[in-house]
Design goal:
Layout (H helix, E strand, L loop, with lengths): L1 H27 L3 H10 L13 H7 L2 H28 L7 H24 L12 H11 L1 H18 L2 H20 L3 H5 L1 H21 L1 H9 L14
Helix pairs in contact: 1-4, 1-5, 2-4, 3-4, 4-5, 4-6, 5-6, 5-10, 6-7, 7-8, 8-10
Length: 240
């Protein structure tokens, strides 16, 4: 049933799907870690610290101000991509759908945009396809596709980081929590009640976003298991 619904969805809304994918991917390819570091240090963040083009490495290698700019920029591009996906699908639907079905379809557009935004962040076309791990960008995506899931994921992330000082551990556990929260928070919503297809796609896309974040942290996971992972510090602070 879900497979047939997927083919039906793509056959009717393939233009919206392609536009959403391209727009979100290009937004995701704008890497604020690289741009901010080039501005402050005239260097490439991928050649500093851990080599990751993300907020944590910028904070450690360049400083708090650059890290905050990177964090806000990555969150913003995730949020903008999600809103763009919603609006693109809104533009391609009309009176043929009731209000619940139209809102559900546009929400799918938002999730699809979030997925391709993460792909762009991890493999940015503007920076030799070498990007970050997608944590901050996924924050912007989660906050706008489902603020309830975002709060749950953020709580998990914060508790883990406060207890362990490992940002990577908080990021991985938060990424795993995301699809689980999406499923249980939406399985009795008006969207899933209207069509199981909506719940399935939302959960699968959330799982793919979480999987990308986990895979990008594979080296951190290995270091955590060996007890070699660095705890979070800001440039200029002494490690405890």
């Amino acid at each position: 049933m879900v497979i047939s619904d997927l083919f039906h969805f793509l056959s009717y809304y393939w233009i919206a799907f392609i536009l959403t994918a391209i727009a979100a991917y290009l937004l995701g390819s704008i890497n604020f870690a690289i741009l901010t570091t080039q501005h402050f240090e005239k260097t490439d963040i991928r050649n500093s610290g851990s080599g990751n083009a993300g907020m944590t490495n910028v904070m450690r290698s360049v400083g708090k101000k650059a890290g905050i700019i990177t964090f806000v920029g990555d969150i913003a591009k995730g949020a903008v991509a999600v809103m763009a996906g919603y609006l693109i699908f809104w533009a391609f639907t009309g009176k043929e759908l009731d209000s619940v079905s139209r809102a559900s379809l546009c929400l799918l557009g938002a999730y699809i945009a979030g997925f391709f935004d993460i792909i762009g962040h991890v493999f940015p076309v503007f920076f030799q396809f070498r990007g970050g791990k997608g944590v901050a960008t996924s924050v912007g995506i989660m906050a706008f596709v489902d603020w309830r899931s975002f709060l749950i994921v953020f709580a998990v992330f914060l508790i883990v980081v406060l207890l362990t000082k490992y940002v990577s551990a908080g990021s991985v556990l938060g990424a795993i929590t995301f699809p689980i929260s999406v499923y249980f928070l939406n399985r009795k919503s008006e969207y899933s009640a209207a069509n199981e297809f909506y719940l399935t796609v939302m959960t699968v896309v959330a799982a793919l976003i979480g999987l990308i974040v986990v895979i990008k942290h594979k080296d951190n996971i290995k270091r955590l298991l060996r007890g070699e992972e660095s705890k979070f510090t800001i440039k200029g602070e002494k490690k405890k």
